[in-house]
Design brief:
alpha/beta; Rossmann fold; 13 helices; globular; magnesium; metal-binding
């Protein structure tokens, strides 16, 4: 099997397969395959199936090219063409049904979001490149056990948890699907309902794997996707995660020493930047304090008590 980084047109894929004599897939197909393996909830499975069918639809012709040469009688169509049209019709019907099901999920999410707005609880969305530690950060902040694995796209469905600050202010924290370079348009469309959680948030926490050799490029990819979604101006906190894995700090394995060694790094960063190790629970206090600066001030009665 050969895998190509760029998305291939159906014609390009058939030409390469004829030339190489092996199965050829592109980046989009590989990502869809990973998504399919990790989809757990009904919503996630619906979204992945829709993206797969939308990817497959323009590529159906190549599946029946071996029959198109058979031909039929005078004034009739060959069996390949007839089968192709039949498959297209069935696929389009399935796509339509999946969109309807996902629209129902989206309407349910809208009702839930409207309830949250009525209660006035701020929503904060965790975004970042896939495998940057977003789910681990959610678990660390909320003491949850959301699936967090060292693999691409371990989380496909948004997970929301409530968090309370020491002054009794509360907010909802949502973990979202990880981004990746050249995210296929079919995936963005299929995961519209999930991405709406980001659009509806009042604050973004952009998690970056500081230990990754491609951290800069990954950060730029996330920012570009956010800009494409019209979220470039939304307030955000940048979290440099996995500081415990930095090789240059080997031997300094406790939180005070690790943060102290990185003080010089912080001097060149804005006030909305935080260093963390989600798995070791380092830097969480600083992160919560930074989040608190973005939330509405707690209501104080005339006696000065916080409500």
């Amino acid at each position: 099997m050969a895998i190509f980084d760029d998305e291939l047109t159906p014609a390009q894929q058939r030409t390469l397969e004829d030339f190489l004599k092996v199965k050829v897939i592109d980046r989009a197909a590989l990502i869809l395959d990973i998504f399919a393996r990790h989809a757990k909830t009904m919503e996630g499975k619906l979204q992945v199936e829709l993206a797969q069918y939308q990817y497959l639809l323009p590529r159906l012709a190549g599946q029946w090219s071996h029959l198109e040469r058979l031909g039929g009688g005078i004034g009739t169509r060959g069996p390949g063409e007839s089968q192709l049209e039949s498959d297209k019709r069935l696929l389009q019907q399935r796509i339509s049904k999946l969109k309807d099901n996902i629209d129902r999920v989206s309407r349910q999410r809208n009702l839930y979001r409207n309830t949250r707005r009525a209660r006035g609880i701020p929503v904060i969305a965790i975004v970042g490149y896939t495998n940057s530690g977003k789910s681990s950060l959610l678990n660390a902040l909320t003491k949850s056990n959301v699936q967090a694995e060292n693999k691409l796209f371990a989380t496909l469905d948004p997970t929301t948890r409530r968090i309370g600050l020491p002054d009794n202010r509360q907010f909802l924290l949502t973990d979202t699907v990880g981004f990746i370079k050249k995210l296929p348009p079919t995936i963005i469309k299929a995961f519209r309902a999930t991405l709406e959680e980001i659009v509806d948030s009042t604050l973004l926490i952009h998690v970056i794997d500081i230990n990754s050799p491609n951290a800069v490029e990954q950060c730029q990819t996330v920012e570009q996707i956010l800009n494409d979604l019209g979220l470039g101006e939304k307030p955000r906190i940048t979290v440099f995660n996995k500081i415990d894995l930095l090789p240059e700090l080997k031997g300094r394995v406790n939180e005070p020493n690790r943060l102290s060694m990185l003080d010089d790094f912080l001097q060149f960063q804005p006030s909305n930047t935080v260093l963390t190790s989600a798995t070791r629970r380092w830097g969480l206090k600083n992160l919560l304090e930074t989040i608190g600066r973005y939330l509405p001030e707690p209501y104080r009665s005339e006696e000065g008590s916080v409500s």
